[in-house]
């Protein structure tokens, strides 16, 4: 980076969508002296933000993008160490507990995520802090992309408010309903529509005191997955362990609603989780009358880029939530792409196409495998994965193995292998 004047790059990167992926990519590029502009649909990040948890691989990618990102993340997260007396669980991701069967209530395994453990934060807090790292005038709020059109000289971005800009190159980080993806892959939009995945969930946030009363101190304070026949439940501390986030997942072949949320009541929950043992039943007793949320899935797409336009994060590979890896994958994408686009050999929009090619070659297989694994994970946690079922040893082994694959990757090597692909291609182009 030092022996070339990167400010002489003949392009500015237009980023559509300022979520986790868009902002981390922008910060990585700015730090490497690549010009960016960000167009974000909302006018401010919503107060009632979703919670996020990011695993070890993405945690290691954060400081490589920019050390500030990691500092911010570490300062905002809730961990097991927020509960006095539970510091020994600092590196625990989840304790996995049998909900049903002869060992009901006992711990199957303490699944560690080394070294970071379970970490959760509010998405809106993280985004607000990330925006503060970006120079004024770079993020344009209230710009919802309507359509995108490539011309001989660039890419026209047309926004819902009637305004438009011409961009040199575009990265679509606009989430699950990506408009940028529509323009990259119009022919695949039909088959990549969301489909009901065969599971729905109930959600609740309980006070820690209520939670302790319901399931005891350790089950309340340590992140827990309860595994049972055809269903599983997850709880983890949030907000400095003042509250606990609970999700219950169950299988049902059909979803008879047009929307992804439908009203439900206590009896529905009792019917779905009555067989799930004392802990889960105690949780249900304290959960307010809930709604049911359908879990959707999408088919893999054939490419993450076309010409001067690429897609990143959920726009490219949205996943079911059974592995908690969506945001982490967006961060891994951002790390690879920031390094490629800032490489001194990438000077023109034509060179950028080589960067997109390499990004796709390295990131598509891994992120799509994460999507597939997330689906398999649901079957594992519901004790119905072929060849494993409720076999204790096999369950431990396969869960450990799958999370290792997700977490133990050498993120620098991932990036360098993409760089190698790009440099070989650029050599052929010149
Ligand atoms: C229920 C649920 C639970 C989850 N739990 C976890 C978890 O525990 N851990 C984890 O790692 N991941 C989790 N995820 C996934 C995670 O939220 C996403 O993978 C992650 O936010 C993806 O980041 P992104 O930047 O690609 O998209 P987003 O964060 O969705 O950002 C997209 C941005 O683009 C903007 N935008 C959208 N359309 C337009 C447009 N047309 N023009 C301009 N801007 C636009 C949006 O306003 C938004 O700011 C969960 C997801 C869901 C749905
Ligand atoms: C609770 O967890 C779910 C699933 O992981 C997540 O979607 C939701 O945003 C979380 N809510 C809060 C308030 O943390």
From TrEMBL:
It comes from Tolypocladium capitatum. Residues 137-374 form the FAD-binding domain. The keyword Hydrolase does not apply. This is Salicylate hydroxylase. GO terms for biological process: secondary metabolite biosynthetic process. It comes from the Eukaryota. GO terms for molecular function: FAD binding; oxidoreductase activity. It holds the Pfam family FAD_binding_3. The keyword Transmembrane applies. The chain crosses the membrane at residues 12-30. Keywords: FAD, Flavoprotein, Membrane, Oxidoreductase, Transmembrane, Transmembrane helix.
């Amino acid at each position: 980076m030092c022996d070339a004047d990167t400010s002489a790059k003949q392009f500015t990167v237009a980023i559509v969508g300022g979520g986790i992926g868009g902002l981390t990519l922008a910060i990585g590029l700015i730090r490497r002296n690549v010009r960016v502009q960000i167009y974000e649909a909302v006018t401010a990040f919503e107060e009632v933000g979703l919670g996020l948890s990011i695993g070890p691989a993405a945690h290691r990618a954060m400081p490589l993008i920019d050390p500030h990102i990691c500092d911010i993340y570490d300062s905002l997260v809730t961990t097991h160490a927020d509960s006095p007396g539970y510091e020994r669980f600092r590196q625990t991701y989840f304790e996995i507990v049998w909900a049903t069967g002869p060992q009901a209530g006992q711990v199957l395994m303490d699944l560690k995520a080394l070294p970071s453990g379970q970490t959760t934060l509010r998405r809106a807090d993280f985004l607000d802090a990330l925006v503060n790292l970006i120079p004024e005038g770079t993020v344009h709020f209230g710009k919802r992309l309507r359509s995108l059109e490539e011309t001989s000289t660039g890419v026209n971005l047309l926004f819902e408010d009637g305004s438009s800009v011409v961009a040199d190159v575009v990265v679509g980080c606009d989430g699950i309903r990506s408009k940028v993806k529509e323009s990259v892959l119009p022919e695949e939009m039909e088959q990549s529509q969301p489909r009901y995945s065969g599971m729905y969930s109930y959600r609740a946030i309980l006070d820690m005191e209520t939670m302790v009363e319901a399931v005891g101190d350790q089950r309340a304070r340590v992140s827990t997955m309860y595994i049972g026949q055809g269903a599983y439940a997850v709880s983890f501390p949030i907000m400095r362990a003042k509250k606990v986030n609970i999700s219950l997942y169950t299988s049902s072949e059909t979803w008879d609603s047009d929307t992804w949320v439908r009203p439900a009541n206590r009896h529905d929950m009792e019917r779905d989780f009555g067989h799930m043992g004392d802990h889960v039943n105690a949780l249900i007793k304290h959960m307010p009358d809930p709604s049911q949320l359908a879990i959707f899935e999408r088919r893999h797409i054939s490419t993450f880029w076309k010409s001067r336009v690429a897609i990143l994060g959920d726009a490219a590979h949205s996943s079911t939530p059974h592995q908690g890896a969506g945001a982490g994958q967006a961060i891994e994408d951002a790390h690879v792409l920031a390094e490629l686009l800032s490489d001194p050999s990438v000077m023109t929009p034509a060179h950028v196409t080589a960067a997109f090619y390499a990004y796709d070659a390295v990131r598509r297989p891994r992120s799509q495998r994460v999507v597939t694994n997330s689906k398999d994970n649901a079957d594992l946690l519901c004790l119905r994965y072929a060849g494993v079922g409720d076999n204790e040893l096999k369950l431990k082994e396969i869960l450990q193995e799958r999370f290792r694959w997700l977490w133990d990757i050498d993120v620098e090597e991932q990036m360098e292998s993409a760089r190698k692909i790009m440099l070989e291609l650029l050599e052929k182009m010149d």
